[in-house]
Design brief:
Number of helices: 5
Protein name: YihY/virulence factor BrkB family protein
Distance between the termini: 64 Å
Strand content: under 5%
Helix content: 55-70%
Order of helices and strands: HHHHH
């Protein structure tokens, strides 16, 4: 005869939901940390910021802008409270709107895209 109580091994629905949400939030934060701190730190053009993908290709620029939108809340928290750093701007747009390769600060901040 089986004397084991089946309810003793069950996890409640709220606890399961809480655990799943905790894993999702942890994955989100850890992935931001890994991607932002192991990404491209600076480009050869010496623009400020870090990049989630290679900023000198069209595909890399699109990926960088996608990650900027995806991680926007963590970027703000990191920039305001932790490191003070923000992702760099879309380099190809800056290079195409610059005059002889020089970009003023006003243009730089208006092209950021997030």
């Amino acid at each position: 005869m089986n004397d084991a109580n089946p309810s003793r091994f069950r996890i409640s629905t709220p606890a399961a939901i809480f655990a799943l949400l905790g894993l999702l939030v942890a994955s989100y934060v850890i992935s931001f940390y890994v991607i932002s701190f192991t990404g491209y730190d600076e480009t050869p053009q010496e623009l400020d910021g870090y990049y989630f993908a290679d900023p000198l290709t069209d595909a890399g620029e699109r990926r960088h802008l996608y990650f900027c939108r995806l991680y926007w809340p963590l970027i703000e928290i990191d920039a305001r409270l932790i490191t003070g750093r923000r992702p760099g701007s879309a380099v190809l747009k800056l290079l195409s709107c610059s005059d002889e390769g020089m970009v003023d600060a006003e243009t730089f901040h208006s092209v950021e895209g997030y």
